[in-house]
Amino acid sequence: MSAKIKPSQGARYARILGVGGYRPTRVVPNEEILRYIDSSDEWIRSRSGIVTRHWAGPDETVAEMSVEAAGKAIADAGLAPEDIGAVIVATVSHFKQTPAVATEIAHRVGAGTPPAFDISAGCAGFTYGLSLAKGMVTDGSARYVLVIGVERLSDLTDKEDRATAFLFGDGAGAVVVGPSDEPAIGPVIWGSEGDKAETIKQTLPWDVYREGRPDEVRFPAITQEGQAVFRWAVFEMAKVAQQALDAAGVTADQLDAFIPHQANMRIIDSMIKALKLPEHVAVARDIETTGNTSSASIPLAMERLLATGQARSGDTALVIGFGAGLVFAASVVTLP
What we know:
With about 325 residues, the chain is α/β, with parallel strands linked by helices. The chain has helices at about 30-35, 40-50, 60-75, 100-110, 125-140, 225-250, 265-275, 285-290, 295-305; strands at about 15-20, 25-30, 50-55, 85-90, 115-120, 145-150, 170-180, 190, 200, 220-225, 255-260, 280-285, 315-325, 325-335. The chain is built from nine helices and 14 strands.
């Protein structure tokens, strides 16, 4: 007779219990970007909505920024570091292939010896991590999960690339996911379109340096086909967002907040129109002063909406991440 596996016993539902963020101290205005590209402040603002962004200093590493954001999220959740049962870090700018930076972060925040791992899902990384954390809590493999989105995209920015030099910023955002008495993280709608992988990519693979000729090549940077990405985001991501609303049984007029990946202000405005969001819905526009921080953008925008009072604890929010891969993920959540 085959053995019977004991079923897991987790929480019935999961929710976001706390949020925290960290933005580097250095603020970079458009004027500084214009030293390297032939453009104007007006053009950058009209194309992206970005006025300033934060760039990390030498001591503001991926791990350091994550620890700062994580500490705030854990405190906001009313927990102690040792309560954390797992750590998930979404990033594309941690330059060590191994070990995962999540293990260092888990140790430095005082979480003990929890499972800790990195995921690479571009600008959808945080939303991917949120879904994984929900599954861990409801499966019973962890009671409280720390999810971090963190980037130092200034390290991967070609300052002379007119199409991308003004886009990217640095920072870290974190949330703690734990048990809930009622549904507070809706079904995730996620996927990928690998046939479009070349539209957002790293210019060179790391192994080019193994050949011993780094002086002959430029350091890898992120590049994108701007128009193709814009069209995809505007026309396809609104559909994904609507699917997430439908899966959660929530209508647009029942939303309190909309927190999309902070990629481009025009994309955000187009999605608002496509989803027919009413005026009472608070919309995250953190990109204006933070830039595009990839996997960090949603938790940073969430933290700012709550800190400024534009959204409140208990509000219902739609979150959606999308980017390199091309990948996407959306769900409806209750704000902490």
